[in-house]
Every structure is written in structure tokens, then in C-alpha cells.
TrEMBL record:
Domain of life per record: Eukaryota
Alphabetically ordered keywords of this record: DNA recombination
Name under which the protein is recorded: DNA breaking-rejoining enzyme
Keyword Nucleotidyltransferase listed: no
Lineage: Eukaryota, Fungi, Dikarya, Basidiomycota, Agaricomycotina
Record keyword DNA damage present: no
Amino acid sequence: MFNSRRLGELIVVSSKAFDPSRNVAHSAPFVRRSPADGTKYSVLHIPWTKTSHVEGADIILSNIDNITNAFMAIDHHLVANVAVPSNAPFFAYETTDGKWAAMTKPWFLARCNQVWRAANLLELTGHCFRIGGATELLLRGVPPDVVAVQGRWKSRAFLEYWHKIESILPLFVTSSFSDSRTAMINASMDSYARRYS
């Protein structure tokens, strides 16, 4: 998972709107790391964000043993699209006619919603990825401070993404974790809320 990033920071609105000073290019620095403890992760630098502007930001992709493993998905994307020019958008892909196309936000959302409709799930907007990413990390027991740093939230702004968390947590957590794990997650979230209220 992309750790609750803004979708617009990763893919372009249209193929004609690509601007390498604001959009991540296929040639973007992408570093794979594996420290002594064996935890593999990758770092992708993006040139512009809504909050840091031209300073950009580093996106850290953790190698997790799960179907949502962005670490492996990006490796697959780069290998499968090795012929895409370096000045193309990062998520450009090779087409069947030997050319390439940019993955655009409208195309990506339309494809996701097509899959979700087929599974009888609700259609979502791009902003739902940010909310969903934060919620997923919280449900996995990632401390709220870590989720806030990963999503580059400042102070109370992060708490806005927890709307309805009181009804979401019991539904997912009680079926996934023991009572002690649930208590730890709730205590961690309460501590974060008190600190920034």
C-alpha cells in the first residue's frame, strides 16, 4: 500500500498534463534498501507535494507479506515497463503496439471502480485512497504517530481522517485481533487524540 499518499502526487490527471517539476517521472530516484535487520524497503522521491511544494517528499514502501505489498508491485511495474522512456510519467506503461501510455487518474479510478462494481462494492473517489490507507494502517496496529508521519499530517488535521473510526474499528478489529490487541490499538489512538486535542 502507498501509506495513505495523495493519489494526485503519484499519477497525472491527463497524459498532456505531465510536468516533471510537479509529477514523478519514470527516472525518479527509486532506491531499494535492506538494513542489517533484514527489513526490505524502497524509497521513491516525488518532486512536489501539496504541503511541501517544490521540496518534494520521499515515499517509503515497506516490504510486507501481504497482497497489498507496494514494494513488490513497484518492482513488477518497473520490470514490466523497462522500455518506457525516462522522461515519461513514473506510472507509464508499455502498450500492446510497442508504445507507452501514461496511467492517468481518471483511467485508474475508472478501472478500480470497474473491479469494485463487479465485486458488488461501492465506487470510490481518489481521496478515499488516502483515508483508506490511513485506516488500513491503523487497523494493522501501526501507531497513530507513525501513520501521521507517513501521511505527512500536521497536528489535529490527521484526526479528521478518523471520522467514523469508532464504528469502523469494532467491525474489523474484533474479527482480526484478540481483545488485548484491540485494547492496545484503542489506547494508542486515544493517546494520540489527547496529545493533539
